[in-house]
From TrEMBL:
Positions of the PTS EIIC type-2 domain: 284-619
Protein name: protein-N(pi)-phosphohistidine--D-fructose phosphotransferase
Keyword vocabulary terms for this entry: Cell membrane, Kinase, Membrane, Phosphoprotein, Phosphotransferase system, Sugar transport, Transferase, Transmembrane, Transmembrane helix, Transport
Species: Pseudaeromonas sharmana
Protein EC: 2.7.1.202
PANTHER family xrefs: FRUCTOSE-LIKE PERMEASE (PTHR30505), FRUCTOSE-LIKE PTS SYSTEM EIIBC COMPONENT-RELATED (PTHR30505:SF0)
Residue ranges of every copy of the PTS EIIA type-2 domain listed in the record: 4-148
Ranges where the PTS EIIB type-2 domain occurs: 163-258
Location(s), subcellular: Cell inner membrane
Main localization, broad class: membrane
Catalytic activity: D-fructose(out) + N(pros)-phospho-L-histidyl-[protein] = D-fructose 1-phosphate(in) + L-histidyl-[protein]
């Protein structure tokens, strides 16, 4: 199969380039001349995008630039030799001389990736690089790859026992297989048998059985990808980068043999249990986490900018917290608003991306924007993060189905850059405008009418309903109905509704800040959630309920009920204490600035609600974790 990827036309024994970009363009030109790519600029751009993930320069003067690109018509490997060497940014700091440029179709067949394993084995083979550098012609160099691989006899018999290896690089193309070959070669020289699982772009291959894991003397996880570690509990385990065994496989193996036995903590067990619950549920968890992880920086950045602007530059007015137009704090507020506008499309876009890769990103972002903008389908507010999740899932699975079809070779290059994105965008727009939008608008009208009918009844019942709506979707349509209903009654002098709403608004973010603080010792939140908890606390202080969205999107079954319960408690207490609020905003900042009639009681309502939310979230998460462990 390697003969279809490498030929003498793709080999340059004397590169003219003097820098990294020059190498990319010179080898890309050979690929284009051989009909392997149809857009040099696009392909070079994709190569640089891959370099931003991790430099592809290895030790001993070897570099493996590679990219999955829509510009690739047919997979290929271009080879170039720079006799003087260039500064490629290799890990050992030495100039790179030998370049293997791997061109992979964005959505083509995956057979070429398996050929990379053969290429990797060649690079590890003793004396191969020297023979390649000494080849007198491009034809002679190509012939080296066509030869049968030389059989090597291990320096020692494999009588020392069995090792398990796991390799994986961010793109799953080159480093994955080089690391696997390096481990196999080093293990053989040390007298060990080894089974190496590769986490490549074609999926997980050669996974060890439970019996093999039980017999293993040690486990080496040389991967920059997420790997299931629970199966290795109790075995000596070394975690390192995918480049480590390529640099010195023997040292890596020796470290693994002397490593401590792996003992997963509670958070790892919870994460792995969720990821392994099987089939669609496991994939759903994975894609949701991808969307949430990309959304968190937008939530934190936007929330903290808005919080800072309101806390320092804001004044309470009948129309809410206002910042003077044209002031510095108004500009900072606008920056935060931009970040908040982007966070919902980002959530949808990267959920879709996790399902169907790059072709799904644009329609996912577009779908998220439409979902969050009710004007597209005649609703007073968008669907918030719940609509974004729905949009991301619909787009992702549609685009994955589209890109998996077989197309004529003339159409294939257009699928990932034109056909799939346009079809996905039109589909999700039609779904929200003609199918999903009308029921949402009708539901919002019905909820508003329900609040009107309850407004003259029991304060406890009204507090339960109003508070529950405030905590349900944190800035989404249900929350917006309750907020707009309360704001509308301020003008008629009924400020007790906004008082209850103002106490319920900050409960979700403050509650999750409390939960992450208390839960740090319980190991039920990961590092990103702990950081998001700090930002949620700051947002809660200035009445930004969206600070809790990352937690609700990641674990809705635990977080949403906790948010709803705590918000209900705060709203009921506010009604019973007779708390009023004359401005269209909520949170402790409103009470402290004098917009509420009983500020200390208002703060008590907020603190009580946040405590209920925090403790409920901890209890539900702990219960779900124990259930997962019991099932395991």
């Amino acid at each position: 199969m390697i003969t279809s990827l490498i030929n003498e036309r793709l080999i340059s024994l004397q590169l003219a380039a003097s820098d990294k970009d020059g190498v990319f363009r010179e080898l890309a030109a050979r690929l284009a001349a051989d009909g392997r790519i149809n857009d040099i600029e696009q392909f070079v751009s994709d190569l640089w995008a891959r370099e931003e993930i991790d430099n592809t320069g290895f030790e001993e003067g070897i570099a493996l630039p590679h990219a999955k690109s829509a510009a690739v018509v047919k997979p290929a490997v271009a080879i170039g030799i720079s006799r003087n060497g260039i500064d490629y940014g290799a890990q050992d700091g030495q100039p790179s001389r030998l370049f293997f440029m791997i061109a992979s179709p964005a959505n083509g067949a995956n057979q070429h990736v398996e050929v990379l394993a053969e290429l990797s084995s060649r690079l590890i083979e003793t004396g191969f690089i020297e023979r390649l550098l000494a080849a007198p012609s491009a034809a002679a160099a190509a012939a080296l790859f066509y030869e049968a691989k030389a059989e090597t006899t291990p320096a020692r018999p494999a009588d020392q026992g069995l090792l398990i290896g796991v390799t994986g690089c961010p793109t799953g193309v080159a480093h994955t297989y080089l690391a696997a070959e390096a481990l196999e070669k080093a293990a053989a020289e040390l007298g060990y048998a080894i089974k190496v699982e590769t986490n490549g772009s074609i999926g997980v291959k050669n996974s060890p059985s439970s019996d093999e894991i039980a017999r293993a003397k040690a486990v080496i996880v040389a991967s920059d990808r997420q790997v299931d570690l629970l199966r290795f509990a109790g075995k000596p385990l070394l975690q390192t980068s995918v480049k480590a065994p390529i640099h010195d496989g023997k040292v890596v193996i020796e470290k693994a043999l002397h490593a401590a036995a792996y003992q997963p903590d509670a958070s790892e067990q919870q994460r792995q249990a969720k990821a392994q619950t099987g089939g669609m549920r496991g994939e759903l968890y994975r894609v949701l986490m991808n969307g949430v992880s990309h959304m968190i920086p937008f939530v934190v950045t936007g929330g903290l900018l808005i919080a800072l602007a309101l806390a320092i530059g804001g004044d309470p007015t009948p129309n809410g917290m206002q910042i003077p137009e044209g002031s510095l704090w108004n500009q900072i507020l606008n920056l935060g608003v931009v970040s908040f506008k982007l966070m919902i499309p980002i959530l949808a876009g990267y959920i879709a991306y996790a399902i169907a890769d790059r072709p799904a990103l644009a329609p996912g972002l577009i779908g998220g924007w439409i979902a969050n903008d009710g004007s597209f389908y005649g609703a007073a507010a968008g669907t918030g993060f719940i609509g974004a999740i729905l949009a991301g899932l619909l787009v992702g699975y549609l685009v994955r189905w589209i890109t998996a079809r077989h197309y004529h070779k003339m159409l294939q290059p257009l699928v990932p850059i034109l056909i799939a994105p346009i079809t996905g965008s039109l589909f999700i727009a039609a779904m929200f405008i003609f199918v999903i939008g009308a029921p949402i608008a009708d539901l919002m009208a019905a909820m508003n009418q329900m609040l009107v009918s309850l407004s003259g009844g029991s304060l406890v019942l009204l507090g339960i309903v109003l508070g529950g709506m405030a905590g349900f979707d944190m800035g989404g349509p249900v929350n917006k109905v309750a907020f707009l209903f309360s704001v509308g009654l301020i003008a008629s002098g009924q400020t007790q509704f906004m008082g209850a709403m103002a106490c319920a608004i900050p409960v979700a973010p403050l509650g999750m800040a409390m939960a992450t603080t208390l839960g740090r010792k319980l190991n039920i939140f990961d590092g990103s959630e702990l950081e998001a908890g700090k930002a949620a606390g700051a947002m809660g202080l200035v009445g930004i309920s969206e600070g809790a969205i990352p937690f609700a999107a990641r674990d809705p079954l635990a977080v949403i009920p906790a948010n709803v319960l705590g918000s209900m408690v705060a709203a009921v207490m506010a009604f019973l204490f007779g708390i009023t609020n004359s401005v269209a905003h909520g949170g402790p900042i409103v009470a402290l600035l004098g917009a509420m009639n009983h500020p200390l009681l208002a703060l008590l309502c907020m603190a009580t609600g946040a405590t209920v939310t925090g403790m409920t979230a901890l209890a539900l998460k702990k219960w779900r974790l124990q259930g997962s462990q019991a099932l395991a």
